[in-house]
Fold:
Amino acid sequence: GENVEQHPSTLSVQEGDSAVIKCTYSDSASNYFPWYKQELGKGPQLIIDIRSNVGEKKDQRIAVTLNKTAKHFSLHITETQPEDSAVYFCAAGGLYDYKLSFGAGTTVTVRA
Amino acid sequence: DAGVIQSPRHEVTEMGQEVTLRCKPISGHDYLFWYRQTMMRGLELLIYFNNNVPIDDSGMPEDRFSAKMPNASFSTLKIQPSEPRDSAVYFCASSSGAGEQFFGPGTRLTVL
Structure:
C-alpha cells in the first residue's frame, strides 16, 4: 500500500515568515495530493490539493508543489499569521481509488 | 448544509462494553469514510462505503469492529467488546468522489 512520510513533525516560525512542509510517497500510481489543516478539537479541513497533471498550485498565501519523478510534494505558507497555527497533514491517493493515505502531521506554531 | 454530523462527540465507557458511533454524511455525497486518529498511529482509514456498500474494510483492526450504512444518510461504527486500546478520536468523512473529503468533528472515545 501507499506510504506517506511527512517532515518536519514540528515547525515554529515567526509571524510573517514562511513555512514549508515536505512529504514523500511510495506508490507511483498515486495522483491526488491534498493538504489538510486540523485545529484543536476539530476534524481535518482541506486547504489545497493538487493532481499529478499539475506541478504547482497556489491559493493566496498557500502553494503546493509536486515532483512526480522524485515522488515528493510540498506545502508553502507565506506571510504566516497566528491563525495558521495548527496541525497540517499531507495525503496521497489514486484517481479511481478514493482511499487516502495520510502523513503523520506537522504541528505548526506561529510566534507573534 | 450542516456538514458531516457525528454523535456522540465524547464517549466514556468501560472495557467490555459495546460502543456505537454515528455519522450523518453531507447530503448527496456517495462516499463515506471512517477514520481513527491516535498519537501513535496518526490518521488511519478503517473502512469506506460507496452508495451504502462497503468497498474496502482492510483497515478495520479486528472482528470487534463493524460498520454499517443502512441508507445514504446514516452510518454506524460499532465496537464490541471495547478495549482500552480502542481509545482514540474517530472521524467520519464524506465525499462526492471528486477528491475532497469533508470530515466531521469526530468522536473522542475513552475506554477505561
User: Anything to note?
Assistant: Chain A has a mean pLDDT of 94.
